[in-house]
Amino acid sequence: MADRSGQVKAVAILFLITTWVLVPLRLYCRGYIVKSFGSDDWILCFLQIVFTIYLISQLLGAVAGTGRHKTDITPEANTEALRVSNERSSVVVREFGANTAVLATGQWWFICELLYIISTCALKISVGFSLLRICVRPAYARIIHFLMYATGLVGIVYFLMVLLQCRPMSTFWEQSPRTNDLCFKNSIVLGLTYTIAIMNCLADWAFSILPILVVKHLNMRRSTKVSLSAILGLAALGSIATVVRCFYIPTLLVGDDFLFATTEVALWSTIEPGLGIIATSLAILRPLYRAMKIRIGLYGSQTAEYHIRDTDAVSLYSAAKTAGNLSQSNVFGLFKGATKTESSDNAHMSETRELHVTTELTAPAVAWVSPG
């Protein structure tokens, strides 16, 4: 296929639309339905802004020539495409000429590399804070904290490598990021790029396995555990994108037909954070789904919800079907109760309280159940 710019545009537009639908829904759910807006949500807001800039840059690059052969675009378009291209890696062999347009090319590459590093770190830290909301085992919490700190440390190292890889810094865009004696050698940058990719992959898989272990110890129906674990496990797809992208890292050394050769890198580098944002948003939307069902009357009378540690992600319980038992020591959470009678469309009572569950609680079919 001679022109793959359409694929680049399609993937960018898909994630631009999808993330801007799901992220606001997640923030609405956290902020107005369960009133549990936390650090992970603030980090996600920041991440969404950075990812949007990333996608806009990719779209501009595709319009200018990303995904097309060098022979199919004018020299001016080739320069413009490189200026807004956003593939993530320091391994770029490109000889820059001494003119203003080409200088801008290197500056755009430099800025986009730094933005990508920030966005990938922010995604993993946001996922970590989300898991801490539902984690009830100290051992798992320590693992999550370790992964978050490790992600931040690795991100800082990679950020500094990109920032300081040339001396002076302007050598990156005034000459070339691979200028001999002034920039890091190709072997150093290539080795660091592969190392960071492997560490990102391992962190993604750890964040994918941990939800299964965490949810296993929560008090909820088996079907709910399976569905929640599956949604949280979508983060594993991001690691698959990282692995696939690794196979195309050598294409970043292709200087003659760079824009076409690196199409796969551009696609998979977008899919990885995009899937992560979608997964973290879907995992939080369950209370919104339940609230909509209650509003349109799909629940019967005397329906209550029990939420352990994080009301929007786990442990949803219906008192209309069973007088359920809730037992778990040393767990902080929220209790919500709302009822609807056969003769009225209005909820008679709704209450939210914090509770510390230390003994078994029984929820009879009444308007609401006090944890006391």
TrEMBL record:
Bilayer-spanning residue ranges: 12-29, 41-60, 108-132, 144-164, 188-214, 226-253, 265-285
A GO cellular-component term linked to this record: membrane
Residues annotated as domain Rhodopsin: 25-290
Membrane topology: Multi-pass membrane protein
Keyword field contains Repeat: no
One Pfam family named in its UniProt record: Fung_rhodopsin
Keyword set, alphabetical order: Membrane, Transmembrane, Transmembrane helix
The keyword Membrane appears for this protein: yes
Subcellular localization(s) per the UniProt record: Membrane
Cross-referenced InterPro entries: Rhodopsin_dom_fungi (IPR049326), SAT4-like (IPR052337)
Family, as annotated: Belongs to the SAT4 family.
UniProt-recorded name of the protein: Rhodopsin domain-containing protein
